[in-house]
From TrEMBL:
GO molecular function, one term: protein histidine kinase activity
Catalytic activities: ATP + protein L-histidine = ADP + protein N-phospho-L-histidine
Record EC number: 2.7.13.3
InterPro entries: GAF (IPR003018), GAF-like_dom_sf (IPR029016), HATPase_C_sf (IPR036890), PAC (IPR001610), PAS (IPR000014), PAS-assoc_C (IPR000700), PAS-like_dom_sf (IPR035965), PAS_fold_3 (IPR013655)
Broad class of enzyme this protein falls into: transferase
UniProt keyword Lipid metabolism present: no
Species annotation: Methylorubrum extorquens (Methylobacterium dichloromethanicum)
Domain PAS: 165-236, 293-364, 412-482, 538-609, 667-739
The keyword Phosphoprotein is assigned to this record: yes
The protein, known as: Blue-light-activated histidine kinase
Amino acid sequence: MSEQEAARLRALDRYRLLDTPREQDFDEIAEAAAELCEAPIAVVNLVGDGRQFFKAEVGLGVRETPLETSFCRQAILHDDFLYVPDTARDPRFEGNPLVSGDPGLRFYAGALLRTDGGQPIGTVCVLDTRPRELSERQRRGLMRLARQAMTQMELRRSLREQAEQRLLHERILDSATDYAIVAMDPQGRVTRWNTGAERILGWTEAEMLGRTVDAFFTPEDRAGDRPAVEKRLAAEAGSAPDERWHMRKDGTRFWASGEMMPLTAEDGGLIGFLKILRDRTGQRASEAALQASELRYRSLVEVSPQVVWFGDEAGRVTYCNTYWYDYTGLPPGETGEASWMGVIHPDHRERVRDAWLAAARSRGGYEVEFPLRRADGQYRWFLSRARPVRDEAGHLKSWIGTTLDIHERKVAEERFAALTELAPAIIWFGNPDGSLSYLNDRWYAYTGQTPEQALPLGWGEAIHPDDVDGLLKVWEAARTHETVYDTEARLRARDGTYRWFLIRAEPRRDASGTVVGWLGSNSDIHDRRQADEDLRRAREQLHLAVEATGTGIFDYDLVTDTLEWDARTRALFGLGSEAPVSYDVFLAGLHPEDRVWVDRAVEAALDPAGSGTYDIAYRTIGLEDGIERWVAAKGQAFVAGGRTVRFIGTVRDVTQSRRAEQTLRETEERYRLAARATNDAIWDWNLATNHVLWNEALTVAYGYPPEAVDPTGDWWITHIHPDDRTRIDASIHAVIDGTGTAWSDEYRFLRANGTYADILDRGYVIRDGHGAAVRMIGAMLDISERKRAEEHQRLLTGELQHRVKNTLTLVQAIASQTLRNAPDLDAAREAFAARLISLGRAHDILTRSSWTEAPIAEVVEGALAVHRGAAMARIRASGPSVLLGAKAALSLALALHELATNATKYGALANEVGCVELRWHVVHEDEAPRFCLTWSEQGGPPILSQPSRRGFGSRLIERSFAAEVGGEVKLTYAPTGLVCRLEAPLASMQEPRDEVAA
């Protein structure tokens, strides 16, 4: 058991209501719940350990049931209210035997009984054997009744606990001998603190020694200097008694009666004081509670809506509450026999007086009913009860009685008696032993028996001999289990004929729940039985008539809640011929996705206010074979007396047709999804109407919204490029007008944004039985990218031819110049190889960018990589990011290679300390920006004079740079080192590009 459940059971146990007798207050709550919700069953229920106890119940007939099948164990899991319109459709209850079996509970609504501590201990609930709705008013009313039930429970617990506490306090006060005794010096400082003081006040002696007694006086007494006042009074009068509030160590207050006395020496001198306290908090609280209890009791008596009276030992009335005098109009305080006998109806006075005197003599209970005169002279029926009050020894000390107005009940009983005589049915009262005590005149008129012949057991002679044993067996079972008695039997009429009767009875219980009798009725159902038999024969004929049609039949009798299926209907639900069927079986056999809406369709058909027709198709899952089937069902409901009594119809297996429809839908869906998944514009052209249906790609790929498209072949033709239009119109009509079926062609199609797309269009012609074209379906494939790729490839091929030719020309020039100026073959080979390597690196850079452009930093790095290997920090390059065209990149790479080679041989890189500064930038002075690059050498061997002749490298730099990019080259031989300045228009450095990244 969980700790939470244990706490809940402890909270329930505090009320001590389990297994207690019935009480009128709770019975009235249950009755009010049943009446409010118009339910046959109502319960004030307490959920215990493994069981539920009914403190009050209406229509249930038991006081306790196991918790396993309890609805209320679900209710206590909810915050305030559990409402289940139909338990058979609620997964929490659909397997509950109380739902699927007897008594077939289908509706539940319960308001939670929750303690002040929040623990759920039970419910006030209503139940019914049929599904139903609960209004908001009924729900609020049920919750109010639950609160009233808790109020009753809390009141009983409070009164019991108050009585227990009052008794406990009285015993403690009677037996307590502990006192707080405190000794102090003349200044009020504690010198002695006994054990009683420790227990009562909370401080230990060690904590209080040397402190003043002010500590256990209240703040208001300390402010009024009460300790000093008590010492002064004690010193003057020899004693200072008091009764007041005091303080404990923990800050709580307690009421104490105490006394302060002076302590004197032998010579009479004051040596201190003695303070004695006794805790009177409990006694004070008990007295206050007793006074409040007496006040409440007297107030209850005075405001009670019934007469409350007291009598002495001899039976003389000594007191009547206000209600008596207000009702009778007698003078207040008048209690004499003559006065109260005078207001009793004259016809009942002697009977009432004799009953009262007999009770006084026997000293037993008194109970009598009589009419009592009201102050206005009218008489009303009252029930008077009294019980003797005895002392502990059992001696009678007095009487206490009540007189309750039962006028409405008496009138109702008289009306009921009249109704039983006027009712068209036979009404009877049964005794717990099975005998009858009453039969209305309908019985005697029908059977011809007399009361002496029929009562108490002679009624059995009117039962048909073939029905006697079954009737007595059911009657015995109902009495044994205290349940509703329900059977059918034939009763003999006075002319000797027999007719069928429905015989029903319900147990009548007293306040404790004990069955004291039975109220029953016999209704003539002979004509209905005959109609049922006629219907059975008609149904048999119908069965034979539809046997050859392959149609199944269902028949639902709502009066008896019986559902019948023929063999075909059972087969559609995957059931054998002997399998039991019911509405729950019908719902269980439905496909889960269809179950809810089919149930609603049946409910609508069964609604008496509706048309009563039923024509639907649904899926079943075979309950035994697991096969899914489609079923078409039609039915008609029949209403009698405002109530649907029967529901009959047919079912057919439509699985094959449904599967064919499903296959068609799936095919159409696949086509639709395929059309959506492709970017091809798919078209469907009705050649007879010239109507064209497009898919969504016309909008997605070509930008035309649906409202902008005229769905005709003419709209398509007008959006073809004018140069292609005549050709395409002729080619497609050549196929349409001929005998072919396939058409394909390429053309340009106008997009919504004004541009043209290259299209490959293919179509298929559908012809009728005479070979005439009636329809054409095709797809437009956008091949613009393919066309651009083909054009790009053509351009690349031409560019490659141009680049190869230029490169070969450049290599030829380098070779020619190198061989012409080299001193020997080895030098020529070395110089030629280095220049080809530099040219190759520039080619590598350009190849990575498809020979369109190359970053200057990569060109510089590629040209100088060989020379910077050992002198990494000696060549410093910097400048903005500039993209160079192919020609400019090759020319610059060769120029930098020549400059670095000469610097290594003769210039700044020929020693260990020289360096090279390589800087470039873009000048924006004029409209056309210019590219500038400066090569500056420093720290190398000094240049003492200008060179006598120009080498091949210098000429190569000037010729290649000037020829390829139209640039200028300026070489300056300064004493500190060579300075080379290259300058050219930025546009020529970038060839086709126009922008500059600076």
